[in-house]
Amino acid sequence: MQFCEECGSMMVSEDGRMVCTSCGHSEARDEERAARFVSTEEQSDDDVIETEEGANFEGKPTSDDVTCDDCGHGVAWYTIKQTGAADEPPTRFFKCKDCHNRWREYN
User: Fold this and answer.
1) Burial of 55 (0-12, 13-18, 19+ CB in 10 A)
2) pLDDT in the model for residue 38
3) Among 22, 16, 21, which residue's Cα sits nearest to residue 34?
4) Is the separation of the CB atoms in 63 and 80 below 8 Å?
5) In the beta sheet, which residues pair with residue 19?
């Protein structure tokens, strides 16, 4: 990634030159820097947290400090996802191990 020397905005590569996305300043592309740049071409879904209705919670971590509102069972699978701003606590999604009821907690 290269930043504009004039205004500090991010630059993009266009026809072999680096062009500022804000002020339009252009300069020669630094080929040595570009060769060191590593881009991601493929993403693994190993760390993806599935939270939709049909998500499979079995095999996820379990929590025994919860109580299911439907059956009163005290153990549930859970996943954690940051659903709000970065300075807010993550949301915990639960699935009861007994009746499979789903719910969420925000702190």
Assistant:
1) middle
2) 75
3) 16
4) no
5) 12, 26
Please state, as a whole number, how many other Cβ atoms lie within 10 Å of the Cβ of residue 26: 14
- Structure token pair of residue 29: 């592309």
Amino acid letter at 76? Answer: A
Residue type, 50: E
Taking only the tens of pLDDT, the chain with its 107 residues reads 788 889 999 989 898 899 999 999 999 888 887 788 777 777 666 655 555 666 677 778 899 999 999 999 999 999 888 888 888 888 898 999 999 899 998 87
Element of type H or E holding 66: none
Q: Is the dihedral of CA 19, 41, 54, 62 positive or negative?
A: negative
Task: Report the distance separating Cα 104 and Cα 85, nearest Å.
Answer: 17
Q: Where are the alpha helices (DSSP H) in the chain?
A: 31-36
Local structure of 36: helix, strand or coil = helix
∠ CA 39-42-43, nearest 5°, is 105
Active site (catalytic) residues: 87-88
